[in-house]
């Protein structure tokens, strides 16, 4: 008997009005961390929005543990088991850390605000601070913590390392590994190739709205030719420049 993968995406098509962004996009993942990398404008954020129901797909299928979820509302998809940490974190600037967490906390769930504070002790210290007074790293921790309270099977993160100090990126990398060890899958869109490789042992490369290639481990980090081809990393970038090689920005 074959079991369904955690997430299976087949022939996905989505866009904005007449402009089709995702076309025949497919991949599968289990309880693991998978990175999505690619040049700007290839459709990575559109894929996140299509998976979580913010942008209903116009074709194809999204299956979570074998059940179709495409066409469901974002609320139903969240209840089905996919949580979203959107780009820019989208927190309430006037609500405190504990108010954010209390809003989503429900009796009987595995993830509680205390469990989130145990994972991110920094948030416990900042409990009474408003969203607008948190640092970028603290906001990202809160956005991840909020997603965890949904007890999701899969967390979709759109550019979580954006604008964060290296030490906070380390915390995020550890968090992703911790989640996978706890049975929570993570699909992470990253501009920062180095961060993507550290978070996820599989990276899928998006080109013009499709998954065009897949790489394992740090294969991409050692291949400036592939970085140039798939990620637009310039040939002018010295291979010894860790920041240049670490970003997928063109
Ligand atoms: N709300 C929108 N309305 C119309 N077009 C959009 C909208 N959002 C994105 N697009 C277009 O869809 C395409 C894919 O954008 P998307 O943001 O998904 O790419 P991306 O790979 O996430 O890039 P980036 O890293 O720059 O965010 C781009 O051509 C973009 O201009």
From TrEMBL:
<dbReference type="GO" id="GO:0015658">
    <property type="term" value="F:branched-chain amino acid transmembrane transporter activity"/>
</dbReference>
<dbReference type="GO" id="GO:0016887">
    <property type="term" value="F:ATP hydrolysis activity"/>
</dbReference>
<dbReference type="InterPro" id="IPR003593">
    <property type="entry name" value="AAA+_ATPase"/>
</dbReference>
<dbReference type="InterPro" id="IPR003439">
    <property type="entry name" value="ABC_transporter-like_ATP-bd"/>
</dbReference>
<feature type="domain" description="ABC transporter">
    <location>
        <begin position="7"/>
        <end position="233"/>
    </location>
</feature>
<keyword id="KW-0067">ATP-binding</keyword>
<dbReference type="InterPro" id="IPR017871">
    <property type="entry name" value="ABC_transporter-like_CS"/>
</dbReference>
<dbReference type="InterPro" id="IPR027417">
    <property type="entry name" value="P-loop_NTPase"/>
</dbReference>
<keyword id="KW-0029">Amino-acid transport</keyword>
<dbReference type="GO" id="GO:0015807">
    <property type="term" value="P:L-amino acid transport"/>
</dbReference>
<keyword id="KW-0547">Nucleotide-binding</keyword>
<comment type="similarity">
    <text>Belongs to the ABC transporter superfamily.</text>
</comment>
<dbReference type="GO" id="GO:0005524">
    <property type="term" value="F:ATP binding"/>
</dbReference>
<protein>
    <submittedName>
        <fullName>Branched-chain amino acid transport system ATP-binding protein</fullName>
    </submittedName>
</protein>
<keyword id="KW-0813">Transport</keyword>
<dbReference type="Pfam" id="PF00005">
    <property type="entry name" value="ABC_tran"/>
</dbReference>
<dbReference type="InterPro" id="IPR052156">
    <property type="entry name" value="BCAA_Transport_ATP-bd_LivF"/>
</dbReference>
């Amino acid at each position: 008997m074959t079991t369904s993968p955690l997430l299976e995406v087949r022939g996905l098509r989505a866009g904005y009005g007449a402009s089709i962004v995702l076309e025949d996009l497919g991949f599968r993942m289990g309880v693991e961390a998978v990175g999505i990398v690619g040049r700007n404008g290839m459709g990575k954020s559109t894929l996140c929005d299509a998976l979580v129901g913010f942008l209903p797909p116009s074709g194809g299928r999204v299956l979570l543990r074998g059940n179709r979820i495409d066409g469901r509302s974002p609320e139903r998809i969240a209840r089905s088991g996919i949580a979203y940490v959107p780009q820019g974190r989208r927190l309430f600037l006037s609500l405190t850390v504990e108010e954010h967490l209390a809003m989503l906390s429900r009796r009987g769930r595995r993830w509680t605000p205390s469990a989130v504070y145990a994972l991110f002790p920094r948030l416990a210290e900042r409990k009474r601070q408003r969203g607008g007074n948190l640092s970028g790293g603290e906001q990202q921790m809160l956005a991840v913590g909020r997603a965890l309270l949904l007890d999701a099977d899969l967390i979709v993160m759109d550019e979580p390392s954006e604008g964060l100090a290296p030490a906070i990126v380390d915390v995020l990398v550890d968090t992703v590994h911790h989640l996978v060890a706890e049975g929570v899958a993570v699909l992470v869109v990253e501009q920062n190739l180095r961060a993507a490789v550290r978070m996820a042992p599989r990276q899928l490369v998006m080109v013009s709205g499709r998954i065009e290639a897949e790489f394992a481990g740090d294969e991409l980090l050692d291949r400036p030719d592939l970085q140039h081809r798939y990620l637009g990393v310039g040939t002018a970038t010295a291979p010894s420049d860790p920041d240049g090689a670490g970003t997928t920005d063109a």
